[in-house]
Amino acid sequence: MTEHMLTIDGQRIPFTEGQTIIEAATAAGVYIPHLCHNPEFKPHGSCKLCTVKVNGRNCSACTFPAADGQEVLNNTQELNETRRTITQMLFIEGNHFCPSCEKSGNCQLQAVGYYLNMLDAHFPFFYPSREVDASHQEVMLDRDRCILCELCVRASRDVDGKNVFALSGRGINSHLIVNSTTGKLKDTDISVDDKAVHVCPVGAILIKRKGFEVPIGERIYDGQDIGQVSLEHEMPIVEEAEHGR
Amino acid sequence: MAGKIKVATTSLAGCFGCHMSFLDIDERILALAEIAEFDRSPLTDIKHCSDQVDIGLVEGGLCNAENVHTLREFRESCKILVAVGACAINGGLPAMRNHIPLQECLEESYLDAVGVENPQIPNDVELPLLLNKVHPIHEVVKVDYFLPGCPPSADVFWKFLTDLASGAEPSLPYELVHYD
Known about the structure:
The complex is a heterodimer. Chain A is an alpha+beta fold. Chain A has helices spanning about 20-25, 75-95, 110-115, 150-160, 195-200, 220-225, 225-245, and strands spanning about 5-10, 10-15, 50-55, 55-60, 70-75, 130-135, 140, 165-170, 175-180, 205. Chain A folds into two domains: about 1-125 and about 220-245, Ubiquitin-like (UB roll), CATH 3.10.20; about 130-215, 2-Layer Sandwich (Alpha-Beta Plaits). Chain A is about 30% helix and about 15% strand. In chain A, helix 1 packs across helix 7 (about 225-245). The two termini of chain A are about 15 Å apart. Chain B is of the alpha/beta class. Chain B has one domain: 3-Layer(aba) Sandwich (Rossmann fold), CATH 3.40.50.700. Helix content of chain B is about 30%, strand content about 20%. Chain B is built from six helices and seven strands, in the order βααβββαβααββα. In chain B, the strands form two sheets. In chain B, strands 2-1-3-5-7 form a five-stranded parallel β-sheet, with helices on both faces. A two-stranded antiparallel ribbon of chain B has the order 4-6. The N and C termini of chain B lie far apart (about 40 Å). The interface between A and B is medium-sized, with 28 and 29 residues.
């Protein structure tokens, strides 16, 4: 059997049939920045941070299938500048006040900003009005910080089997809704052990009374950048899926 | 020594934390004083910029009309304008009032708050008018550089100023970039 091969930034990367470009890259130890992608879930392809050039065309690495002979560009100045712009737009479309957020230091949006050397948001801020749902005893929903990645939607539907979350509205009015008669978290059957509660890449879904437990200096991204952390965490997941294929 | 770099600083809607962090460069301020002099700054108590300032460091966002006036004067006087800290860059904590109508903010603070005596909303003519929303400074003037952090660490100030003084394009390595 001949091995399937593509190249990323000139480096030869093997892949198995059915893998996406980001899965092949992760398995080979190549980091492609991403937010809405999580190898435990079906790809969503919405944040566009993982945009790579495949044979000269922009594609989302999390949804695009790997194929023999593809020439993929990933860690280029042009792509990283585009990714920085995308990250800046995520910041101005929400209310991301890192100094007062208990996710700070453990937040993937923030860590991607650091990784891309984002020093400002460039665009004027929207400061949208977003509702906080603190109704549940143990779980907190702060829509100000939501980046609409739908990881909680996918986790609640596909893993927890509870369908607690969905997206609603369009454009700047897009927001996370909660599946209960009152629209409040307290009237759902969500619990702290649910996957949906643990999968949020930002500080939108938090477990109460856990904020600031880890001191500054010991948080996830204080010592390592998101590229290192992401590969460490996601490589085993992709490899396991590969063996099961 | 002639030809020292002129540095001006100001705090708009900020907490002076960025200024305090700047002073955390500690004894390095002596080396800085060899090549730079402070112009308008809360540190010198000089109230207005001289004609040509080389570097203007702005802490804080814009929450009232006076902030906007000061910022525009700074922009006119400074060759290089720098947004320092979270508030100057994204409005920071003061901008967390942005989703609450201004009238409600004032009523909550001055009329309805616990322990308020003689409740009244201040309206002395000398008080600068509040803006409806708090804004970062890049929405009003051209900003040349940004130093993120709440506050940016002393090393961030030091790296930035020494880069500029040596004629290099300022850059912040990964470990100096923080939003908190």
